[in-house]
Design a protein that fits this description.
The structure is a single chain. The protein has helices at residues 28-39, 71-79, 93-98, 100-121, 154-173, 198-208, 227-240, 257-267, 295-301, 309-324, and strands spanning 5-7, 13-15, 19-23, 43-48, 62-65, 83-86, 124-128, 176-182, 184-186, 211-215, 221-226, 246-249, 254-256, 276-280. By secondary structure, the protein is an alpha/beta fold. A seven-stranded parallel β-sheet has the order 5-4-3-6-7-8-12, with helices on both faces. The protein is built from ten helices and 14 strands. The protein has a domain at 16-187 and 224-250 and 289-306: Rossmann fold (3-Layer(aba) Sandwich), CATH 3.40.50.720.
Length: 325
């Protein structure tokens, strides 16, 4: 069904006629992912509710404005695509905590519908879960995929529930699926002040002369991965991941919020912008430490992160200076 393939740059396989549907592909990670998918020779269609963000997509990508929860629409799109990457999510950890019922109702039913339709159409699905929220408080570090999953935010609970439903449809209806659990992505294109993406918000706060809010003395410790490394990992799982498996995608290095702020100071290149920090009380839905083990991803796909943290930070700073400077 997928036709002939030829090697390309010793990285991913160039696919001559695979058609990929990316749900929620007009956002930060999605736009980078679409470019990477096009680079493998795939035909890519982006389905997104927010058609105003289509302008950031590569011109070669097809665009469909609509809700993936509409059964007729998703059924029609599945007919013309062999594989689906599901990136869409209606909330972030902050908003999920404020309204856990909405988080569940806006995300669970349409994704279950997608899994059922994809199983019936024998289509391959890659579900993008969350490496930062599904595990809860770390028992051992770095966190492997078999680590206990006890999320403490509604966002994490719903993401984990969707993973379980993917497994259910895989076992009972033959759904060919993989799941990825990304660490905290950052890089050019990430919008600050959205409740997600500490690095973008911290950098933009410096540019605007605002204080950076830190919850606790050093803040939480997170695994930050540059967006191009993340999307390379997603494409690697799409092409070489084992069906029914879940893969962490992260740097394997933990950095506190204050570690990040100290690194920001070193990439500002003599900028006159001052860094101002305000320490606030810790929040109950923030896990203290999250650092991911990526052994399975490396062994199954050959993936390796390429972008040094400080290099990625400098690129993000340059991009944000153009936007907000």
């Amino acid at each position: 069904m997928h036709g002939e393939t030829v090697p390309h740059n010793n990285d991913h396989v160039v696919s001559t006629d695979i058609r990929t549907l990316v749900i929620g592909g007009a956002g930060f990670i999605g736009t980078h992912l679409v470019s990477a998918l096009l680079g493998t020779g795939r035909s890519v269609t982006v389905l997104d509710k927010n058609d105003s963000s289509f302008s950031s997509l590569p011109p070669e990508a097809s665009r469909v404005a609509g809700d993936f929860g509409e059964p007729g629409l998703i059924r029609k799109l599945l007919l013309s695509h062999e594989e689906v990457i599901h990136l869409a999510y209606a909330s972030v950890p902050n908003t999920s905590f404020e309204n856990p019922l909405a988080d569940l109702l806006e995300n669970l039913p349409p994704t279950l519908q997608l899994f059922a339709e994809a199983a019936g159409a024998r289509r391959k699905v890659l579900f993008v879960s969350s490496g930062g929220t599904v595990y809860g408080e770390a028992v051992t570090l770095p966190i492997r995929e078999g680590h206990p999953t006890k999320p403490i935010s509604p966002y994490g609970v719903t993401k984990l529930t969707l993973e379980h439903y993917a497994h259910l449809f895989g076992t009972t209806q033959g759904l060919h699926y993989t799941c990825v659990r990304p660490a905290n992505a950052f890089g050019p294109g990430q919008k600050p002040f959205t409740g997600q993406g500490f690095i973008a918000t911290a950098l933009a706060s410096v540019l605007r002369g605002d204080r950076i809010n830190i919850f606790g003395q050093r803040g939480t410790m997170r695994d930050y991965i540059y967006v191009s490394d993340l999307v390379e990992g997603i494409v690697g799982v799409l092409e070489k991941g084992h069906s029914g498996q879940t893969y962490n995608i992260g740097s394997g290095v933990g950095r506190s919020n204050m570690d990040v702020i100290e690194a920001i100071g070193s990439v500002m290149n003599g900028s006159n912008n001052a860094i101002s920090v305000e320490h606030l009380p810790e929040r109950p839905f923030d896990v203290k430490t999250n650092v991911l083990d990526t052994t399975a991803l490396r062994e199954h796909t050959g993936w390796e992160p390429r972008v040094d943290f400080n290099d990625g930070l400098a690129r993000t700073w340059s991009w944000l200076r153009e936007q907000y400077g």
